[in-house]
Amino acid sequence: MARAALASIPTGEHSLRTGEFTYGLLIEAGMSPREASLAMDRLTLYLVGDAYEASVHWARMRAAGMRDPREYFEAFIRQITTYYRALPRERFPHLYDHVDDLTADGGEARFEYGLELLLDGIEAAHAQDLTRPALGRIA
Questions:
Q1: Helix/strand/coil for 33
Q2: CA distance 22 to 119
Q3: How many CB atoms lie within 10 A of CB 35?
Q4: Which of 20, 44, 82, 107 lies 20 to 30 Å from 93, alpha-carbon distance?
Q5: Rounded-to-integer distance, Cα 109 and Cα 90, Å
Q6: Rounded Cα distance, 69 and 62, in Å
Q7: So what's the pLDDT on residue 5?
Q8: Nearest CA to 88 among 79, 96, 78?
Q9: What tens digit of pLDDT does each residue of 68-110 get?
C-alpha cells in the first residue's frame, strides 16, 4: 500500500479527506496555501517512506520464516553491527567508531525523532517566512 502511494496524487476518498484535513490545519496555522502545500507534501512523503520501509522489513521477515518482529530486528541489527565492525577503520572511522550509536534506537524512536525534526523545521521556516519581505516569501 505504501509503495502505491509513492509518486502518485491521492484520489481515494480517505486520502482526500486526510489531505483536506492536514492542508486545512496548515493554512489555519497561518501558512500561505503554497507553503502549506509544500509542507504537506514533505510530511506525506516522510510518512509514506517510513511505511514503505516497514513493509520491506515485514516482507523480509516473512521470507526468512520468522514470525517475531523483535527476533527479526535483533538479527538485522546484529548483521549491520557485524558488518560495520568489519569495515576498515582508516576508511570509515565514523561508522566504525559509532556503530552502537547508529543502531541504538528502534524504529519507533527513529520515526518520532524524524517527525519532530521535520515539524520543527516546518515551524521554523514558517516563522522565518513571516519575517521576510513579501518578495522573499513562498507565495
A1: helix
A2: 13
A3: 20
A4: 107
A5: 31
A6: 10
A7: 56
A8: 96
A9: 999 999 999 999 999 999 999 999 999 999 999 999 998 899 9
- Cα 133 from Cα 24, distance rounded (Å): 24
| Cβ-Cβ contacts under 8 Å for 34 (sequence gap 6 or more) | 138, 139
Entry pTM: 0.76
Q: What is the DSSP letter of 104?
A: S
Angle ∠(25,32,22) on CA atoms, nearest 5: 20
* Furthest CA-CA distance within the chain: 59
Helical spans, DSSP H, in the chain: 2-5, 13-28, 33-63, 69-85, 93-97, 99-102, 107-131
SS3 135: helix
pLDDT digits (tens, 9 = 90+) for 21-56: 999 999 999 898 998 999 999 999 999 999 999 999
How many residues in the chain? 139
User: In angstroms, rounded to a whole number, what is the distance separating the alpha carbons of residues 125 and 128?
Assistant: 5
Dist CA 116 CA 122 (whole Å): 10
The DSSP secondary-structure symbol of 136 reads G
